[in-house]
Amino acid sequence: MINSIYVHIPFCVRKCNYCAFNSKVADTDEISNYVDALISEIKSTPYSLTPAPYSLYFGGGTPTVLKIEQLEKIISQFKIDGTAEITIEANPGTVDENYLRNLREIGFNRLSLGVQSFNNELLKILGRIHTKDAAIDAIQLAKKYFDNVSIDLMYGLPTQSLIDVENDLEFALAQDVQHISIYGFEIEDGTNFGKMYAEGKLNLPDDNAMYDIIVATLPRFGFRRYEISNFAKENFESRHNLGYWTGAKYLGFGAGAHSYDGKIRNSNVIDVATYIKKIRNGESVSVLEEIVTPKAAMEEFCFLGLRTAEGLSVEKFAQNFGKDIFEIYGEVIEKNIKSGLLENSDGRIFLTPHGMKLGNIVFADFLL
Q1: CA dihedral 154, 158, 159, 164 (to 10 degrees)
Q2: What tens digit of pLDDT does each residue of 126-151 get?
Q3: pTM
């Protein structure tokens, strides 16, 4: 049963210096053509309409560069009931009170704001279109219409100091939101920062102390760490994110979107113009990406599950694969327990706080 749906909107006002996502600067005509193509794709997939999704997520890019009327046309294609979590990502520089009110009225009930920092100088360096004050205004306006507001913060940014991170945390906590995602800065090929790094023009700080402060501070203010990069107040964990990490089946619409039915992973063509052309010509936009073998399924179950605070269920592993997890991964588990990176308790295997910091090392050990 598919109960998690993702809709990709690949447009932004401006491409940020760090961004390697499938996005491009918005063009009015192209956006209109894309919306028509997107609706056609949704309509051509009958099982997208039933059952009602547990989670419907509009990501990007910046979905809020679309007009409310365009978003309403898209969201109306899905059968939605009162239990679904319906999220839209937004840039603080693309929303005002009227737009936020309308988002709520057409069905969105969760807002994810890409704040990244409350420091104006860092926002300029990142290439963001908003300011600190605009971010705070957007958050406070959003809270008038949404009971579930999330913000993104980044650390390890060029020129960023420990004091900058502490200030960002102070401002973030003062906003009284329900969810905070934290992301360590990474150099991505094909980005402006990637080029600058190759030329030796980026001043990058040591982000270890920054990470330590963030993960120590947020829980003290009621944010439970439920996944390596995500913190939420009680009952406000992102359904969309949890679905990925727990192996749920999902369906993706739009250029570059991915789908997974439990056995096969597909991806749509990435280029927006190609996506639109294929839809108009009645051609499939889906490309087979991977047939998930039992071996790959085991690996994914482990390293995705280990991203979460709950970790791996020994019982569920046996149910899914008909094998004892210790027969397959006994030596790996014991090795990482001895290293202080894993813990085995109450039928679950999970990362320790130190393991959360070195997660990629642990995940690599679970590749068969």
Answers
A1: 0
A2: 999 999 999 999 999 999 999 999 99
A3: 0.95
